Amino acid sequence: MRSMAIEASLEALAVRRDTIDDEVGGGVLTAEILEECGRVDQLIKEGPVRHPDTDPLNSADGNDGLIFGLLSDLVHPSHKKYYQAIRAAIGRQHLEAVVDTELPARLLSKEDIPTNSGLRRAEDCVKAANHVPSHLQGSNASRRSIIELIQKLHRWLLGKTVVADSLAQACSVLYHSGRRNLPAMPSGTKAVTLEGDKIAKIGNMSNGQGAFPGDSGDVWDAQNVDSIKAELAQKDEEIARIEEELRELTGTDGASNEAVGDDDDPMDAMLEMARVEMGSLEEIKRVAEEEVNRIEASIEASRGSLAELEMSLIREWKEALDNIEGEVCKVRQQRDTLRGKREALEADLDRVRTTLTSQESNLEELRRALEEIVDEEKAMEAELAATREAGEGAAEELEARVAEAGARREQAATRLHEAGQQSKGIVDRCNELKAAVTKEEHRLQQLRYRHMQL
């Protein structure tokens, strides 16, 4: 008898679950569901709720994650595309954007967007709405409780909604957020449409495939996630198998009651063991789901750290290039300065050489004049010796002329000595200029070698 009661209760729960599925999934719209749809549509028309702090579905610190998007084109809360969009937004542990074409983009400002936190709380809310029948099995929850739960979820979504005019605008917001670090979208944010298409930061769409070309840096993590998802699928199959066995045991229990009577204690024990095993499998499934979420979060964190490392390497590379360019500019300036000095010294050397040539010409003229004076003096002495016998008057005149010639000779010798000293100074100056030019050429050669090294 007890097994028959269990079977009847299971059948009643199945009927109730199917009824709730039909009501929530849009198959049968009761008056209460339609009334709730009207209230949600009214909330959508009134616009987003600024800060629903009293909402029990919010996180404790009030900093929930965001679901960006428009809800104005939805027929009713149980619309299939609506749940698809929410699953796409939450299932990959991202803050996503559900975009459409109706409301104005007046909320894309810094003060209207809280920090990125509370994502797990949002996921719990969506799971509670998407799996209402399974959560209510074995409880005494009424249809009103289901409606209130969905209403709370929709209020939370409306309170955490940022509006974009169009898909192109959402792409633009994501693009500028990724390139300029604007506060409109947090790092790692992606977007989905109501069709489930993904939008990357640069505005490209993947047609619902999720990953983008070039994202091959987390192959091992992706394989690990796939293995855990396969394990989850296996656990789901085991749960389904246990439920099938439970149904078979329930049928066997009904047949044995006719033959044996009221002795159904072993069957109750088996049912209890099956329930315990189902509970343990559900716990294993929950742990595996948490592990999948943790691995996906670590993948996203690794992507963020890799992006930061790439940016730091780019900054260091640019700084090194700037330093090298600065050193090259300094070396070029020094080279130009030394070239200018060298040209000036070469010009001075040319002027000194010209002066030395003119001084040598003057010295040669002075030597010729001195030789002429000496020859004239010798001629006068000879004439004096010849005419000394002729008379004393002529001798005195000749002596005066000889004295005058001697004074002229002394003056010419003094000028010759001065010209020789000046020529010597010019020669010394030329040697100094040659040494300076050689030194500057050596420095210029060193700068050329350093420039080649840079």
From TrEMBL:
Presence of the UniProt keyword ATP-binding in the record: no
GO MF annotations in UniProt: ATP binding; DNA binding
Membrane-spanning segments: none
Keyword vocabulary terms for this entry: Cell cycle, Cell division, Coiled coil, Mitosis, Nucleus
Coiled-coil positions: 225-298, 335-450
InterPro entries: SMC_hinge_sf (IPR036277)
Signal sequence segment: none
GO CC annotation terms, alphabetical: cohesin complex; nucleus
Biological process annotations from GO: cell division; sister chromatid cohesion
PANTHER family named in the record: STRUCTURAL MAINTENANCE OF CHROMOSOMES PROTEIN (PTHR18937:SF12), STRUCTURAL MAINTENANCE OF CHROMOSOMES SMC FAMILY MEMBER (PTHR18937)
Official protein name in the record: Structural maintenance of chromosomes protein 1B
Originating species: Perkinsus olseni
